[in-house]
Amino acid sequence: MRYGISNLSIVPMRAEPREKSEMCTQILFGEHYTIIEENNKWCQVRLAFDNHEGWIDRKMVSEIPEDDFLRLNEKPPLVTTDVFNIVQPLGGYKNFLVVAGSSLPDFDNEHKTFRIGDSMYIMQGNNLAPSDRNIRELIIEKALNYFNSPYLWGGRSPFGIDCSGFSQILYKMAGVPIPRNASEQSLMGDTLGFLEESKPGDLAFFDNEEGNIIHVGVIWEKNKIIHSSGMVRIDNIDQFGIYNVDSRRYSHKLRIMRRIIKD
User: Fold this and answer.
1) Which residues are CB-neighbours of 205 under 8 A, at least 6 positions away?
2) Shortest CA distance to 51 belongs to which of 233, 177, 220?
3) 32-37 contacts: CB < 8 A, separation 24 or more?
4) Which of 28, 50, 33 is nearest to 180 (CA)?
């Protein structure tokens, strides 16, 4: 078995090994993975963070030894929480603009250095995942930083993000790992019986006519939800679903609400 880690800001993962295949997710800087299969151009990988599988271009693969992979699995890395951060290889001149939710393995807080594979990096900036913040407050604060970010199927960054990528990255920044897809996220935590029971940071899930979960959003405050639909936006929510304040109609039908954060 072989292993890798992302030393690029964003690596697109595709459902099939071809350029025209849909992007099913993105691997962010510092996230590591198992290489399952490969051909001349593509590698099929499984992301360690959420077990999501897909294909990435072989030119974007940076391999690491098994010992490093196992060590990274044992200790959760520090996660960036600024919308953007700049990192730079030590002794080099090539800057990386990394997005919120990126991982910084083996981070040295005193020197602001960390290691990706065989290379040492330094981070320019101060905003990292705090250990003493209220989780719900942190999730909402960071969610609002994505306001107006465009919707992108498979996206996990402020440049473009889908609904479940949005909830997943917010929870990652808060130190709470959740699956990649809304249908999987909807199986976590405890069910809320009424909207009035919800707290900021709880997740609301929405289904289609066939009863399949197709959308997720983050409860902000009473009767308000933050979600990625066209863009990251704030809309009204009630027992029927999301009421789009621009179109003045219901855009999503409420199926279930879940509380993943224990407090």
Assistant:
1) 182, 185, 186, 213, 215, 216, 254, 255, 256, 257, 258
2) 177
3) 32/3, 32/4, 32/5, 32/6, 32/64, 32/68, 32/69, 32/72, 32/103, 32/105, 33/3, 33/4, 33/5, 33/6, 34/1, 34/2, 34/3, 34/69, 35/1, 35/2, 35/3, 35/4, 35/61, 35/63
4) 50
Enumerate domains of the chain plus CATH numbers.
2-73 (2.30.30.40), 76-124 (no CATH), 135-259 (3.90.1720.10)
Token pair of 244, please? 């789009």
pLDDT at 131 over 70: no
What gap in Å lies between CA 162 and CA 194, rounded to an integer? 26
Q: Give the range among 65-74, 131-140, 206-215 with minimum mean pLDDT.
A: 131-140
Mean pLDDT value across the chain: 94
Say which amino acid occupies 222. Answer: K
For residue 202, what are its two tokens? 């709880």
Percent of the chain having pLDDT more than 90? 84
Report residue 205's pLDDT band, with 50, 70 and 90 as the boundaries.
very high
Task: Read off the pTM.
Answer: 0.95
User: Residues, the chain, total?
Assistant: 263
Residue 161, pLDDT > 60, answer yes
